[in-house]
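User: Some background: our group keeps a shared notebook of sequences we're curious about, and every so often someone picks one and asks for a predicted structure to add to the entry. Today it's my turn. The entry only has the sequence so far, pasted here. Could you supply the structure so I can complete it?
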Amino acid sequence: MQTVFNGNGAAPLVLSELREGEEGILESLDLPEEFASRLMELGFIPGLPVSAGKTAPGGDPRIFHVDGSEVALRRETCSHILIRAHA
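Assistant: Of course. Here's the predicted structure to add to the notebook entry:
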């Protein structure tokens, strides 16, 4: 599994920028509370690793692996989830 590096490693990326097989650490969920809470119930907890999996044929949604689960998310939702490179 590859680890994503974003230049100097300091600036966060959005989850949608991960390519298949890349991994990062969840930084924050910049979503309304009800959506953020639901994602956290599914394992999207800041500080945990997340990796990108397969993408649907049309490019949306995409599968992400987090906390032992596979979760499909739309690109729009991913653009509000910040990640950082592994330390």
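Suggested note for the entry: The longest strand covers residues 22-29. Helices lie at 33-41, 75-78.
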